[in-house]
Amino acid sequence: MTDTQKLLDEMNDRSREVFRRVVEGYLDSGDPVGSRTLTRDFSEKVSAATIRNVMQDLEFMGLLDSPHVSAGRIPTQRGLRMFVDGLLEVGVPDESDREKIDATLGSNERDVGGLLDRVGSALSGVTQGASLVLTPKHEAAIKHLDFVPLGPQQALVVLVFADGHVENRLFQPPPGQTPSSMREAANFLNAMIEGRTLSEVKTIMQREIADRRQEIDSLAHALVESGLASWTGEGDTPERLIVRGRANLLDNSSEAEDLDRIRSLFDDLERKRDIAEFLDLTQDGDGVRIFIGSENKLFSLSGSSLVVSPYMNADRKIIGAVGVIGPTRLNYGRIVPIVDYTAQLVGRMLTDRNER
């Protein structure tokens, strides 16, 4: 039995209604909700004293908190999690919201990055939060690659794809590399790589390294493994993270400490730290996931919530993700269906383009 279900089972109908109304009132206004407010539109005739007793019980359960000496309560992170998992009612996006997202996909341009950039801007505008879009890595066949030494602790891999696309990626080579060992590693890879995608190369490289371990010296072998790491998301990842709507979070925060935390969050994002981890957050399922506060170590410093959903290709393989960051006081019932709708739309759009 999950923690949410256990807590819900411990609550009677009155406790659940008090809890739900406190959370919904807080999400709507951002202010603590008091017992007198609840008595005005409660489903049954109860006194403010009775509701205060229920709120005290909910506080003892760790679901509500008193930020001030007043009688008003706000949900704790545990309370928000229980509300999202057990009581949240999610509908469909409003027609106007759908139209704004749909409008970004009307262009016939071939630049997927530019299109997803517009999707991120639209998602930020619709939700009034900060949007995140993780674009898919390039999966065209590779024509050629080269390793270029830049110094004792840095090197460049140049990837030339069959469709003319060129990517330059920095990575840290193993100690002791020489121009000769880099050329040997590049020759080794080019002999097997042409006409294959990066995903295919990963499998082939692992097999070839095992089969031909004695055919290349140890330094070149180490470089091959280092290059593999840089292509599969463990180093300088090929995915690109688009962040839009930073000002929305800054505008919604009045506390200096909160502003500093949010700036720190976006500094991390703009340096592209933990991009692969962002995608990993979506790997456990194909639906929308919600991370509240410290549940998500990627964004916990900001005290924010993340609503994120993967998008998939025609083979139902996760190739990217879209999400919204906002305060923990998000309108989850509205944001969740918008993120879900956007992710499905992006997946269909990319599939349609690949089939043309």
The CATH architecture category of the largest domain equals 2-Layer Sandwich
CATH superfamily of the largest domain, please?
GAF domain
Largest sheet: 5 strands, antiparallel
Order of H and E elements = HHHHEEHHHEEEEHHHEHHHEEEH
For the largest beta sheet, what order do the strands appear in spatially?
A: 7-3-10-9-8
Proportion of strand residues? 15-25%
What percentage of residues falls in helices of 4 or more residues? 40-55%
**Helical run tally:** 14
Q: Residue-averaged pLDDT, rounded? A: 77
Outline the low-pLDDT stretches: 228-238
Our Rg estimate from Cα atoms comes to: 25 Å
By helix and strand content, what is the structural category?
alpha+beta
What would the CATH topology of the largest domain be? Answer: Beta-Lactamase
